[in-house]
Hints:
Helix content is 45%, strand content 15%. By secondary structure, it is of the alpha/beta class. α1 links the parallel β1 and β2.
Amino acid sequence: xxxxxxxxxxxxxxxxxxxxxxxxxxxxxxxxxxxxxxxxxxxxxxxxxxxxxxxxxxxxxxxxxxxxxxxxxxxxxxxxxxxxxxxxxxxxxxxxxxxxxxxxxxxxxxxxxxxxxxxxxxxxxxxxxxxxxxxxxxxxxxxxxxxxxxxxxxxxxxxxxxxxxxxxxxxxxxxxxxxxxxxxxxxxxxxxxxxxxxxxxxxxxxxxxxxxxxxxxxxxxxxxxxxxxxxxxxxxxxxxxxxxxxxxxxxxxxxxxxxxxxxxxxxxxxxxxxxxxxxxxxxxxxxxxxxxx
Length: 293
């Protein structure tokens, strides 16, 4: 499997957050940043709400991460936007010396809302490159188990290649729990000429209901054996947490041992599970004990 040969390259360990909507959420996220500082992620990405729902908070949240010593990578979602809108967003990011973004199509608007001037993420990536040249490192999304709106796995793979050919530097996958699906996707991508790093997306398991809801919305598959075990635990939150940590830590171990170029954690603005997984994997940043001699 071709990406396994990349094991010698530097691993990118990153975390994803969403902009808090309330003052209390802002305070809680500040505490989470303090808890996660020891993880020393390569960067922290910040999501970009569809239709403007949290867009104003994206830059504010990214700058809060920067102020606390993290590198920040805000998302840019293009659906429902015009070229002028996106150009203004990019200019704001550039003015704050941000050099890494995650470029996504975003969720299609409901009802009769205007879909905007962009229809696919490759159009957004191409626009960013035409406007900004190489100013930004651009990540795009990948779907090892197929995007829920794709007509077929092959169509989805071709769409992914379009984003890379448009100028993407690397990709972050939707979360998954079947690592063979990831490796198969990487092999298929390499076979059609995609050479960029494809970083696995990791979703810690906090609750059975929450996992089912997220997975139903995004099309990520929960293997039958995991569903059955979670169902058997009922409302036993401690057992669900322990089981989830075992499942996700094991998945991460296999991915890193196989040569995945890093891991991208969907934190849901929480610290505990992600920090525990880092600790189990031996990924916590080592304190600097240099004497300077």
